[in-house]
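Q: Hi! First time doing this. I have a protein sequence and I read that you can turn it into a structure. Is that right? Here it is:
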Amino acid sequence: MNMIERKFVNQHIKEFEIKEYVRDNLSRVGLSDVKLQRTPLGEKIIISTSRPGLVVGRSGSNISKLTKDLKEKFSLENPQIEIEEVVSVGLDANIIAEMIVNSLERFGLARFKGVGHKALSDVMAAGAFGVEILISGKIPSARARTWRFYQGYLKKCGDIAVSEVKTAYAHAKLKTGVVGVRVKIMTPDIKLPDNIKIKKIADEASVEEVSNEQVDEKMKDILKEEGEDKKDRKESTPKKKASKKDASDKEKKPRKPRSKKVKKTDKAEESEEEKTAEIAETVEPKEAEEPVQKVSETSEEEKKEE
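A: Yes, that's right. Below is the predicted 3D structure, encoded as structure tokens:
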């Protein structure tokens, strides 16, 4: 490890030791959390508790003693202690765990079920989504076991269960042995990913009634605007001037026939007629006419003789 890494690790270890020392000295005070901030004037220790009067003591005797001990034990130059009061006690897991431990040490193991159910009711009355309390130890017999008290809705896995659900651990020292307490609380300020809200539709009373005449007027206005827009577009688009070359090309180009098949049939008929005419020209007309004339002459001579 480098020197810088060692420095940061030692700082975190020192902060943890200070927090544990404050928690050990301030017992049965409703301690919620201890924070340490470093300022140019010195170290600032913020103690959040449900009973600030017990932390301060008579005329500030407890605070003065605590600052003196911190300065001597941890070699702090100018430790400043601030106290914050916790408003919602039922939603703080550390305070609930401390209350259960105090009641177990005071009343013993005979009333552990009543203590667990009372803590459940206090947490749910504060407005929590869900709560779980585990009390483990030699309760009520000599064999160790775990008693579970739960109520409401509580996340057990996922990022919300790790980062958002408040957990606290405490232990009660009894004659039979040490009893451990674990408290998990799901506070109402947690935003769940599966919590979807649907917006309500506007009421009928809020909708304005519009007559048919008003609708017609609005439609006319819309149509007028559309007509003006079309005119503007037509004016804005430039018209293309037809050149002389284009006109001459159009005149020169003949119209294409509609069907090519008809043209092919006409050409075929013309070719057949030409062939027949050529064949007729090759035959001599005189040879065909002479025998016809001879037959007619013989017939006339025979008639005279008769």
